[in-house]
Specification:
By secondary structure, the protein is α/β, with parallel strands linked by helices. It is built from 10 helices and 8 strands. It is globular. This is ParA family protein.
Length: 266
């Protein structure tokens, strides 16, 4: 199956946003066009990645539109100024769940269907709140779901509580999700994580510099050091094996940005 849309979901604080952006960066390095959608209406995506920018178009406006067309979805995408291959769609600073009218699961699914035709890949940074409608639609509609967890009790308890909810509905395909064990310290025992979620497909090490990047809104910048190299190797391996289906030594196919002209203005 061709992978076009990927949902990145996990426990609170597990690093889903960071993982999503690093996957987007790896795809952009391959000259792939990516739209990143931030589902969280409690911690909006745009101010985390574009902290110095205001008056941006909001995902909430798109979802509240009378008719949600592909053009309408495109108008609300904001090009990541530091990378022409990445565009963002999320909530603005100061917005929350009450900022816009309620929308349906059908409207959320409609949005993701429109986005599929606008870029090579759509990455959906899901909320850990399973009542979030965008997250529910993403987990059901995405071609692949990356489940991000940490090797700590809080993260594992979350999945022990969430799993029964998702297993009730086969549409969530809980057992087919790709498990990423993130932010692992060299001294941590990862066996409890395997006992809770099963096979761990990818393990990403703890890299202190990544928190600094996140705090500065500079997740596209390079990080250095041994663990940083291990982290980037893990992300690249994940992208090549799951998203692109090409060996790492293969030829990079060049392309022109599909959403490169998106300025974020109406």
């Amino acid at each position: 199956m061709a992978i076009k849309t990927a949902a990145v979901w996990g426990s609170p604080g597990s690093g889903t946003t960071l993982t999503t952006i690093k996957i987007a960066k790896a795809l952009a390095n391959l000259k792939k066009n990516v739209i990143v959608v931030g589902c969280d209406d409690q911690t909006p995506l745009l101010p985390l990645l574009l902290p110095s920018t205001s008056e941006l178009p909001s995902l909430g406006d798109a979802l509240a539109a009378d008719q949600l067309s592909q053009i309408e979805a495109l108008r609300h995408c904001v090009q990541y100024v530091k990378n022409q291959y990445i565009s963002l769609l999320g909530y603005r600073l100061g917005e929350n769940v009450l900022s816009y009218p309620e929308y349906t699961l059908q409207r959320a699914s409609e949005l993701f269907s429109h986005l599929r035709g606008l870029a090579d890949f759509v990455l959906i940074d899901c909320s850990s709140n399973l009542d979030n409608v965008l997250t529910a639609a993403a987990l059901k509609q995405a071609d692949v779901t990356f489940k991000v967890l940490n090797a700590d009790p809080k993260s594992l308890v979350y999945f022990q509580s969430a799993a029964p909810l998702l297993l009730r509905d086969s549409g969530y395909r809980y057992g087919e999700q790709t498990n990423i064990l993130n932010n692992v310290l060299s001294s941590q025992d990862v066996d409890p994580a395997r006992e809770v979620v099963g096979k761990i497909a990818y393990t990403l090490p703890h890299v202190p510099e990544l928190k600094d990047q996140y705090d500065r809104g500079e997740l596209l910048e390079a990080v250095f050091g041994k663990t940083a190299r291990q982290y980037e190797t893990g992300i690249r391996k994940l992208v090549m094996e799951v998203m692109v289906h090409e060996p790492e030594h293969g030829i990079v196919r060049r392309g022109k940005p599909a959403v490169g002209d998106v300025s974020g203005t109406a």
